[in-house]
Design a protein that fits this description.
- There is one protein chain.
- The protein is mainly alpha-helical.
- The chain has a domain at 35-85.
- The chain is built from four helices and no strands.
- The chain has helices at 3-11, 15-28, 41-56, 64-85.
- The termini are far apart.
Length: 94
């Protein structure tokens, strides 16, 4: 069975079954170097390190509003560049 057919069948499952299937698929995948998996000792150590940085004042915290503005500005800039460079459909070169 091809992946699109498997995906379509999986989408037809009840939510609980889809979530269990997703968890089983993730658990069956080989580990990705550098990826922190929630619940592992490495994940907990990284989380503790970050919490300590926030408590000690070492971490630079950025308000969500600032991050949102930056992300939206970056996205809008990319979209406007694509519009300028996109070929015109239906026109032939002279």
């Amino acid at each position: 069975m091809k992946r699109p057919a498997v995906f379509a069948e999986a989408l037809a499952l009840p939510t609980e079954d889809r979530l269990e299937l997703a968890a089983e698929l993730l658990a069956s995948a080989p580990p990705v170097p550098g990826l922190l998996v929630e619940g592992t000792p490495e994940f907990r150590a990284e989380l503790a390190r970050r919490v300590e940085e926030v408590k000690s004042g070492k971490a630079r915290l950025i308000p969500w509003e600032d991050i949102r503005k930056t992300l939206l500005g970056s996205f809008e800039s990319k979209v406007s560049r694509k519009k300028r460079t996109a070929p015109r459909v239906g026109r032939t070169a002279k």
